[in-house]
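explain this.
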Amino acid sequence: MGILAKKPCAICGVEVGLTGQVKLADGNYICRKVCQKKAMHGYDFMHGNLPALQEHIAQVERDTETFKKFLWKAKPKSKFKQIGGLRVYEDLGLIARVSIGKKFFIFVSYVDKACIYRIADLYAYEYDQGSKSSFDLQSKTSKSESLHFCHYYFWDTPGLSDFAVRISKKGDQVTVEKYFNKLYGIEKTLRNIGNTWKNQINAVKAAGSAVKAAATGSDDLEEKAGAAADAMERAQYGDRSVWKARADATLAAWGVKWPGV
């Protein structure tokens, strides 16, 4: 039967036909009706594999429960800044990507899905552009619409660690970049020149110390190499220690263990 043959969903096992299946990059199939909907909107199934998708689904289930309990229903509610399709909770050291649904004639909001990230783990927020074609039946011509995205990348995040969020215009990504650069102390302003210069000098010193340890066969080579790597990271991405401490304190207070830690 070939292409028309039903395939078992690799997650729930149900048999699905051609129109009810989604094929992953590793050759596995999942069902559109149930398992595809478990992922966040915009998940790249075409380039994903089964283990990565299962890890993401576990992330969504875990984080949606956490978000509902501590950030949606909790009183008083924590303050957040809505920017670039994300909710940034500066006081908590966390970021949330949330899908909000509506019911009862759109008067009642509910949390459909959520993914939670640590502010300290965000290392890139870049502009992406795409396009969407459509056909106008009246004029009988095809039209192309430009699409704008902000692409986020996170370290140490099991599940969906990089994703693109659609934005209205390129300028929205510029706003996102300025906001996070300021947050991490890496914006190019007079106030931050001192901190940037200090981080760069410390990185050079740490690297020099590691080279010297390697040349002399020092016992603490591994420690010095680690210190050099940390210093180079701070010079490029800013000092994230404050944001890491806030996230650790928040998660500890909630009794939530960060995956993989």
Observations:
- The helical segments are 50-72, 170-184, 190-216, 221-237, 241-254.
- Residues 189-215, 224-232 have pLDDT under 50 and may be disordered.
